[in-house]
Amino acid sequence: MIDESERADGVVDALEHHLVNEIAPLRLQRARSAFLTQGFVKTGFLAPHDVKKLIAEETESLIGRHAVRREGEFAETGGTPRRMHNVRRAEIAEHGRILPRVYSSTGLRESLSAIAGEDVLACPYPPEQFVITELAQSGDTHGWHWDDYSFALVWVIDCPPLEQGGFVQCVPRTEWDKENPQLHRSFVSRPIHSVELRPGDLYFLRSDTTLHRVYPVTGGRRLIVNMGYAARRDLVKPLSHETMDALWAEPERARDTPSRGTEQESSQWRRASCGGTSESPGSSSTT
Known about the structure:
The chain is of the alpha+beta class. It contains nine helices and 13 strands. Helix 1 packs parallel to helix 6 (106-116) and helix 2 (25-38) crosses helix 6.
């Protein structure tokens, strides 16, 4: 009988085989062009359906057993709100098997480096390495913000229809001044790109210079795994973690209502819904 560790290693082996043997260099080049231009690119092609499905199953299990409610507003991002359930890195590392191994995949980081045009490294600040977030109550959102580190890879496990929110909005080539964030100055000086997502999508974000948010949900559920990575410059520049430390602080109490859990699997994880192959935000930009 295969134990959980062997199963997790098998997922990483399948992922790395796919990355080496199934992805044409031209596809990575196109993704790189979009990423360098817009700070965002869909990268669903990086993982095969079976790997996405197993990641989804573990994510559903973890959100159902270990999530807590988070609500707050953050001065460092202009008072923007965070309303969500989440599972922190510590709980994922303790109770998960697949997600920590996927995060540590050398082959995955090499592919992300090809898209970024520079080395993509494990985040040196463990709480930002990987986290699960769920938006399920009307008004839940991950409000406008930047990240402390350069890169984020987001695995979309579940997402509502576009009309019910949950899509991503991005403002590329912006800078975060924690003392004076001036979000509205960014909105009027740069285009706001709005990107529709579906279960099975992945997207790669230049998260420290791309102002971004998740549009508030009004129905359905948005469930994702965020994996944060660093650039070499992040290892030498001074960084503080006020918003992340506050957002992922030790909870006062666990959530009192369970996630819908893996009962979602049969309806959301059909092969047809897991393409995630679009390589750029497309034509849904607004200004």
